[in-house]
Design brief:
The structure is a single chain. With 241 residues, the chain is α/β, with parallel strands linked by helices. It is 39% helix and 18% strand. The strands form 3 sheets. It has a 5-stranded parallel sheet, sandwiched between helices. Helix 4 (78-85) links the parallel strand 3 (66-70) and strand 4 (93-97). Helix 2 (29-41) crosses helix 6 (123-135), helix 7 (169-179) packs across helix 8 (188-195) and helix 7 crosses helix 9. The longest helix has 16 residues, at 204-219. The radius of gyration is 22 Å and the shape is elongated.
C-alpha cells in the first residue's frame, strides 16, 4: 500500500456541522408534528413545546437557533413569552397565529418578533420563512464598526466622525447590513432582505434611493464615498478606521 493511500485511510472524516435547532411552541399537537416533519425534512433539528409557561425554561436549556411561537398558548400567551425571551436572548422568533388583526401583528413585532405568519398557512411557507430569517446576518454592535462610524442598533442612530447622520429606520438598517462585512459587496436582493420587517415587495430602485439618501447625509461630514457602487452587482461599505 502506498504512503498516500495509507494517509488517506488514516485521515479522519470531516465532522458534519450540527443541524440548526428550531423550537416549535405550539399546543396543537397535529400541527406541531406536521411542522416538525417538514422542518426535519429540510435538514433542521426540532424540539416541541406545548405550553407557553414551559417555553422560557426550554429556551434557556437548549441551543436554539430559531423559535416558532404560537400566539394563543395555554399557561402563558405568545406575546408574554416573546417579551420574556427578549429579556435574555436575541434568538430569531417567528410568531404564528389565527388572529389576523393588524393590532396583534404590530404588538408581536414590537415585542421583538422577527416575522409573523397567519394561520392557516402552508408548512412549506413556514420552512421558507425559517430559511429567510436564518439567512439574515446578525447586526453588529457599535464597537464592531470603526472609530469613525458608530452604529447604535437599539436607538437606530448612526454617527460619522461624531456627527449624527439623522437616518430613517430603513436607512439605518441598510447601513447596518453593509456594516456586517465592510468591503463586501452586497447584492440588492440581500440588502432588501434586511430593510423591512415585513415581506413587502420593493424594487431595485428602492434600494438605490435609500443608498442615495445615506450618501447625501454622510456627505455633510465628508463621507460621500461611504458606500461604494459596483455596477451590476450592488453596494459595499468603504470606510477606514
Amino acid at each position: 500500500m502506498s504512503m498516500q493511500n495509507e494517509n488517506q485511510l488514516n485521515t479522519p472524516p470531516l465532522a458534519e456541522e450540527p443541524a440548526q435547532l428550531i423550537m416549535i411552541v405550539e399546543d396543537e399537537i397535529k400541527l406541531a408534528d406536521l411542522l416538525k416533519d417538514y422542518l426535519e425534512s429540510a435538514g433542521y433539528s426540532t424540539i416541541c413545546i406545548e405550553r407557553g409557561d414551559q417555553a422560557v425554561e426550554a429556551l434557556q436549556k437548549n441551543p436554539v437557533n430559531l423559535v416558532l411561537l404560537d400566539l394563543m398558548l395555554p399557561g402563558k400567551d405568545g406575546i408574554q413569552v416573546c417579551k420574556e425571551f427578549r429579556q435574555f436572548s436575541n434568538v430569531p422568533i417567528i410568531m404564528t397565529t389565527a388572529r389576523v388583526e393588524e393590532i396583534d401583528r404590530l404588538i408581536g413585532l414590537e415585542m421583538g418578533a422577527d416575522d409573523y405568519i397567519c394561520k392557516p398557512y402552508s408548512p412549506r411557507e413556514v420552512v421558507a420563512r425559517v430559511k429567510a430569517v436564518l439567512r439574515r446576518q446578525p447586526l453588529p454592535t457599535a464597537e464592531q464598526i470603526t472609530t469613525r462610524l458608530q452604529l447604535d442598533k437599539e436607538a437606530f442612530r448612526a454617527s460619522l466622525d461624531g456627527v449624527d447622520l439623522d437616518l430613517t429606520r430603513v436607512e439605518f438598517r441598510l447601513l447596518m447590513t453593509l456594516a456586517t462585512r465592510p468591503g463586501k459587496v452586497f447584492g440588492r436582493d440581500a440588502l432588501m432582505d434586511g430593510l423591512y420587517d415585513d415581506y413587502r415587495v420593493v424594487s431595485d430602485r428602492t434600494v438605490d434611493s435609500h443608498v442615495k439618501n445615506v450618501r447625501q447625509k454622510a456627505s455633510v461630514v465628508g463621507g460621500e464615498d461611504l458606500i461604494r457602487s459596483v455596477y451590476g452587482v450592488g453596494y459595499s461599505l468603504e470606510i477606514q478606521s
